Amino acid sequence: MTVLLMRLAAPMQSWGAGSRFARRETEMWPTKSGVIGMVAAALGIGRDESLERFSGLRFGVRVDQPGTLMSDYQTARTDAGDMLPLSRRYYLQDAVFLAGLECGDRGELETYRQALAAPHYQLFLGRRSCPPDGPVRTWLVDDDLESALRSIPWCATERYQRSVLLGGDADGHRFAPIVVEPLLGEQDSGSGFVDELMDEPMSFDPRRRQWGPRRYMRLHDETKPEPTVVVPSTTGDVRYGGGRGDTSAFDGDGFFETVAGMDAGVDDADMEEI
C-alpha cells in the first residue's frame, strides 16, 4: 500500500460533520469528506461531478498540534435590510494535523500530490474562510496507514514543540494521537473502541449533498514523532531531529522571521519538499 500524507495547518480550521442551520460546529481533527473535498478542488473536479475515483481510500489523522476551540457569533442582513438568522460557528485556532490517504494505486496518489502542489481551485481547510498557511506539504510513503502516520517527524510549529518538550503544555497534549479507519474485523481485535461518523462523501452537489457512515478509532499506543527543534538546556542545546531541514519553509517562527527580513535558515532544499 501507499499513503499520501498532508500537513494541514492554518490560523483557523473548521471540519464540520453533522452541524446544520444556525449552529456550525467542528470536529477536533480533519474529516475525510473535508480532506477529499480539498483534493477534489486541487484536481479541478466540479461539485456536480462523480466522486467514484475516491472510493476505497482509507483515511487517518495524526493530531500534531490540537489548537484551541473558538466560537464566532455571526449576524447578517439581506440587500433589502432584513435580518437573516443569527448563527454561531466554531473553529480550531492554530492547529496542525498530519492527514493520510491510503491506496493501492501509487500513481493515483501521485496525481493528488501534484494537484495539491499546483491546485486548480483555491484550497480550504474545512470552510472557505480557512485557507492553509502556505503550500500544503506532502509525502508519499510506501507503507500501511498506521506506519506512515508514525514515520513523519513532528509537524507542529517550532513554538509548540518547544513548549511541550520544555514541559510548558498546560493542557497535557504531550504527544500526537492517531485516529484511523479500522480494517475489516478490527473492531473485535482489541485494537480500540470503534465509533461511527457520517463522513464518507458520496456527492458534493449543492442540490443533493450526500454522506455515508464511516468508522474510525483512536490507536492505543501513543506515538512519539521525532521533534524538529533545538531545545536549550543547562548542559547545552539539545538538537531534536534534523533541525530546520525537517520543517516546512512556512512553519512557525521561521515564517515570521522571514517576513521581518531576518535570515531564518530556510534554503532551497526546504522548498523542494513542499
Distance between the termini: 22 Å
Helix content: 10-25%
Instruction: Compute the CA-based radius of gyration.
Output: 19 Å
The level 1 CATH classification of the largest domain is Alpha Beta
CATH topology of the largest domain: Alpha-Beta Plaits
Instruction: Give average pLDDT, whole number.
Output: 82
Uncertain spans: 242-274
Secondary-structure element order, N to C: EEHEEEHEHHEEEEEHH
Compile the SSE list and pairings.
Elements: E1 2-13, E2 23-24, H1 32-43, E3 58-65, E4 68-74, E5 87-103, H2 106-117, E6 138-141, H3 145-151, H4 158-165, E7 178-180, E8 194-203, E9 210-218, E10 230-231, E11 238-239, H5 252-259, H6 268-272
Parallel strand pairs: 2-5
Antiparallel strand pairs: 1-5, 1-6, 3-5, 3-7, 4-5, 7-9, 8-9, 10-11
Helix pairs in contact: 1-2
What does it look like?
With 274 residues, this protein is α+β, with helices and mostly antiparallel strands. The protein folds into 2 domains: 2-152 and 178-221, Alpha-Beta Plaits (2-Layer Sandwich); 153-173 and 226-274, no CATH class. Helix content is 19%, strand content 28%. It has helices at 32-43, 106-117, 145-151, 158-165, 252-259, 268-272, and strands spanning 2-13, 23-24, 58-65, 68-74, 87-103, 138-141, 178-180, 194-203, 210-218, 230-231, 238-239. The strands form 2 sheets. Strands 1, 2, 3, 4, 5, 6, 7, 8 and 9 form a 9-stranded mixed beta sheet that branches. A hairpin with a 6-residue loop joins strand 10 (230-231) and strand 11 (238-239). Helix 1 (32-43) packs across helix 2. The protein is globular and about 60 Å long. The two termini are 22 Å apart. Pfam families: Cas_Cas5d. This is Type I-E CRISPR-associated protein Cas5/CasD. Residues 225-244 are annotated as: Disordered.
